[in-house]
Write a structure and sequence with these properties.
Elements (H helix, E strand, L loop, with lengths): L1 E7 L8 H16 L3 E7 L9 H7 L6 H20 L2 E5 L9 H10 L17 E7 L17 H11 L3 E7 L14 H30 L1
Parallel strand pairs: 1-2, 1-3, 3-4, 4-5
Length: 217
């Protein structure tokens, strides 16, 4: 059986573009590969404690030994989840031009675990991963906000360079066009970009299913 780790970061349980697009990918995958199981880590709805990372960093020097043990145990649990998975779905919206604080906390805690320390062997290198991101405005080359997305490049650095994953990025832009009167003229473009993201997600889901089926054969 193939195991997929899905990590969500949206703080919106309903109406989240990253959740919806990632679900399309997941559904396409499961439709074509019934032998896959999805493990879920919802950082948006169930964020990790903000005190876990400093406690884990402090290790034996932490004044609260119980808190340190708990934090290190959580880091081990997160590392075990990553290692046990055959593929990864990361649903991470752009918040205030930067990476979600919940995802940053998750990554920071993982980096305290010896198997995911910056100079450790890349235990999950080469495994397929998909980053679904959504941006309320336009950040494409030539747009006024070009270069303002400080989330996607950072996540690519972690997932590709630090962990060695084979990463594909699915992007949706102008997601606020339907609710922002100032963006009314961009609604047709926003709809096209969302449809492109939907089709990309479905295509990647089917491709991942084929890959996992081949690996299991």
């Amino acid at each position: 059986m193939s195991t997929i780790l899905r990590v969500d970061a949206s703080i919106r349980p309903q109406g989240s573009v990253t959740r919806d697009v990632t679900t399309l990918l997941e559904d396409a995958l499961l439709e074509d590969h019934s032998g896959a199981a999805v493990v879920r880590r919802d950082l948006g709805m169930n964020p990790l404690s903000p005190s876990a990372w400093p406690a884990a960093v402090s290790a034996e020097h932490a004044p609260d030994a119980d808190r340190t043990i708990e934090a290190r145990g959580l880091a081990t649990e997160l590392a075990d989840e990553l290692i046990a998975a055959d593929a990864y779905l990361f649903a991470v919206p752009l918040y205030n031009w930067g990476v979600s604080q919940h995802v940053k906390n998750w990554v920071d805690l993982l980096l305290t675990e010896e198997r995911f320390a910056p100079r450790a062997e890349k235990l999950i290198a080469g495994r397929p991963a998909y980053l679904v991101t959504a941006r309320g405005g336009m950040y494409a080359p030539g747009s006024p906000r070009e270069g303002w997305d400080h989330s996607t490049p950072w996540l690519q650095r972690i997932f590709e360079d630090v962990w060695g994953l084979n990463l594909q990025v699915i992007e949706a832009e102008l997601t606020l066009a339907n609710v922002n009167p100032a963006m009314a003229g961009l609604r047709d473009l926003a709809a096209q970009k969302l449809d492109d993201a939907h089709q990309s997600a479905i295509g990647h889901g089917k491709s991942l299913a084929a890959l996992l089926r081949a690996q299991a054969a």
